[in-house]
Design brief:
single chain; alpha/beta; 7-stranded mixed beta sheet; 18% helix
């Protein structure tokens, strides 16, 4: 299994190009195993680069959306496989009690926000509500669960050949206080025992104090969940757009000092993890 980071910001980065070693695109990763199926996690602006890598290879694409905030769907209109005649794509998104996934995505993929309508794409697109139970995509076992973030939002757990990747891109498990008992902590079931935990770590502790309830975590929250869940490698994700490379370096160093066990890295565009 190979996991590739194509975008890891919380919004388009405002730092200058000389301070974007971690990259400036918003959330997108791919998970693949060499078969004819590829999983894409979120459709931020990093999806454009992922689409260039996937263009023309004929594999079935399963795009798993955590939620429908703009920074997580902004790359859809620039995803090359969507414009390939007959290419099979499945888009999965969290269910809503008020509107279908198609109705919500059509708000973006239609004028005046975008010139091409979802219904007019030449590819074969199937939309699915994410089941809040385990299902299979090729040889990948996938589980989704709701997590704390404004609006319908899920995290994902992907298992392949005995290895586990947990993806919680936008998540505030400490909302209302410190992380508590495992079974009562948002995201714990997805992260438990994972080899790779990709988790929101947008804020410093001081920044979080001014943004409680916004749906994102401070570095200390990400490390606390990683330790509680006994995750092996923690990948700090959803970087604050105003943080330059040096700020993120400091946050990675802080995370190293806070972790009781396991390792920490900062998500960087082009980074790959092999299992």
């Amino acid at each position: 299994m190979r996991v590739t980071v194509w975008g890891s910001r919380g919004s388009i980065a405002s730092a200058g190009p000389d301070t974007l070693r971690y990259g400036g695109n918003t959330a997108c990763l791919t998970v693949e195993d060499g078969s004819d199926v590829v999983i894409v996690l979120d459709a931020g602006t990093g999806l454009r680069r992922a689409g260039l890598a996937l263009a023309g290879d004929g594999r079935v694409v399963h795009l798993l959306l955590t939620h429908l905030h703009m920074d997580h769907i902004q790359g859809l209109g620039f995803f090359r496989p969507l414009f390939e005649p007959g290419r099979e794509l499945h888009i999965w998104g969290p269910p809503s009690a008020t509107e279908s996934l198609r109705a919500r995505l059509t708000r973006y993929l239609s004028p005046p926000l975008f010139p091409v309508r979802l219904r007019d794409l030449p590819s074969s697109v199937v939309l699915h509500d994410v089941p809040l139970a385990a299902w299979d995509i090729g040889k990948f076992g996938v589980t989704a669960a709701t997590v704390i973030h404004p609006g319908p939002t899920v995290g994902y757990r992907i298992i392949h050949a005995g290895r586990t990747v947990a993806y919680l891109s936008d998540h505030e498990p400490a909302l209302g206080g410190q992380l508590g008992e495992a079974e009562w902590t948002s995201g714990y079931g997805l992260a438990a025992g994972s080899d790779l935990l990709i988790h929101d770590a947008q804020y410093t502790a001081d920044e979080y104090g001014q943004r409680v309830g916004w749906g994102h975590s401070a570095v200390g929250h990400a490390t606390a969940l990683a330790d509680l869940a006994d995750a092996d490698l923690l990948v700090l994700f959803h970087h604050e757009p105003d943080h330059d490379d040096q700020a993120i370096d400091r946050m990675v160093e802080e995370a190293h000092s806070l972790r009781l066990r396991g390792d920490v890295v900062g998500a960087r565009e082009g980074m790959t993890f092999e299992f």
